[in-house]
């Protein structure tokens, strides 16, 4: 689902409920030039909800169901300068989406992430650094959860993939880019059902002069959705069990116990 200023493509978002979308804070805010010294006030202002529309139901930007936004809720501790901490926002639609096979919520993934796990990023942003134009159709790219040490070498203060940010990529020319912001990074269940891992936030290369997207050994940074699940529930009033998903992990011991039980039954 993409977010537009007027009808001009701007960012991506994810449906978590018929009336609620999840996106990146930087998609719907404007950084202030300054705040009073010593002030705890945020260095951003939230844009007016009527500035944007969202479109769902088609992978082509010129088609789909357009909806207006009733309310924008930005995380109050979003750091609009530097590290982009807490880069997350909720969008409440003016009227609920009509859900279908093509328009349906994605549940938030509450499982642990480990290095090398396969995830997928989707969006309608730039496909090369040589153009400013976004894609006119929805694209996706398969990515691995990046090595923690590689991410820590590039991203100041990065913890690991189960903290507030998820770091993915590292392969040349396989990345998200401008226009993909706010869109989903998701995990696929064995039955191909997607579960939301995070929202596209920003990217970094290993060097100051690295390309802004797709750099060799560069990474994409995604706001970790499950880390902010309590905030999402508090602000939206949605049920955490309804909007999230935790995979069932079967240990070797549990598997042996189940096999032994099956032998006794048969």
From TrEMBL:
<dbReference type="Pfam" id="PF00089">
    <property type="entry name" value="Trypsin"/>
</dbReference>
<keyword id="KW-1015">Disulfide bond</keyword>
<dbReference type="InterPro" id="IPR033116">
    <property type="entry name" value="TRYPSIN_SER"/>
</dbReference>
<feature type="domain" description="Peptidase S1">
    <location>
        <begin position="1"/>
        <end position="237"/>
    </location>
</feature>
<dbReference type="GO" id="GO:0006508">
    <property type="term" value="P:proteolysis"/>
</dbReference>
<keyword id="KW-0378">Hydrolase</keyword>
<protein>
    <submittedName>
        <fullName>Trypsin-like cysteine/serine peptidase domain-containing protein</fullName>
    </submittedName>
</protein>
<keyword id="KW-0720">Serine protease</keyword>
<dbReference type="InterPro" id="IPR001314">
    <property type="entry name" value="Peptidase_S1A"/>
</dbReference>
<dbReference type="InterPro" id="IPR018114">
    <property type="entry name" value="TRYPSIN_HIS"/>
</dbReference>
<keyword id="KW-0645">Protease</keyword>
<dbReference type="InterPro" id="IPR051487">
    <property type="entry name" value="Ser/Thr_Proteases_Immune/Dev"/>
</dbReference>
<dbReference type="GO" id="GO:0004252">
    <property type="term" value="F:serine-type endopeptidase activity"/>
</dbReference>
<dbReference type="InterPro" id="IPR043504">
    <property type="entry name" value="Peptidase_S1_PA_chymotrypsin"/>
</dbReference>
<dbReference type="InterPro" id="IPR009003">
    <property type="entry name" value="Peptidase_S1_PA"/>
</dbReference>
<dbReference type="InterPro" id="IPR001254">
    <property type="entry name" value="Trypsin_dom"/>
</dbReference>
């Amino acid at each position: 689902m993409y977010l537009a200023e007027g009808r001009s493509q701007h960012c991506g978002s994810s449906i978590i409920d018929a009336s609620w979308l999840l996106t990146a804070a930087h998609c719907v805010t404007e950084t202030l030039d300054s705040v009073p010294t010593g002030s705890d006030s945020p260095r951003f202002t939230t844009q007016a909800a009527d500035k944007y529309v969202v479109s769902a139901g088609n992978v082509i930007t010129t088609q789909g169901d357009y909806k207006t936004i009733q309310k924008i809720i930005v995380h109050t501790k979003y750091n609009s300068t530097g590290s982009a901490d807490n880069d997350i926002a909720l969008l409440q639609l003016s009227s609920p989406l009509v859900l279908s096979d093509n328009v349906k919520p994605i549940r938030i993934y509450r499982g642990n992430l480990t290095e090398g796990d396969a995830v997928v990023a989707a969006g309608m942003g730039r496909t090369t650094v040589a153009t400013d134009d976004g894609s006119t159709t929805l694209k996706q790219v398969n990515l691995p959860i990046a090595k923690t040490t590689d991410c820590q070498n590039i991203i100041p203060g990065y913890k690991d993939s189960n903290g507030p940010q998820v770091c993915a990529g590292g392969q040349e020319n396989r990345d998200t880019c401008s226009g993909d912001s706010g869109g989903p990074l998701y995990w696929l269940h064995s039955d191909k059902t997607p579960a939301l891992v995070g929202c596209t936030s920003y990217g970094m290369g290993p060097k100051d002069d690295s390309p802004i997207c797709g750099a060799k050994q560069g990474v994409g940074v995604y706001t970790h959705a499950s880390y902010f699940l309590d905030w999402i529930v508090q602000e939206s009033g949605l049920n955490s069990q309804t909007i999230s998903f935790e995979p069932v992990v079967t240990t070797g011991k549990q598997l042996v116990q189940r096999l032994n039980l099956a032998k006794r039954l048969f």
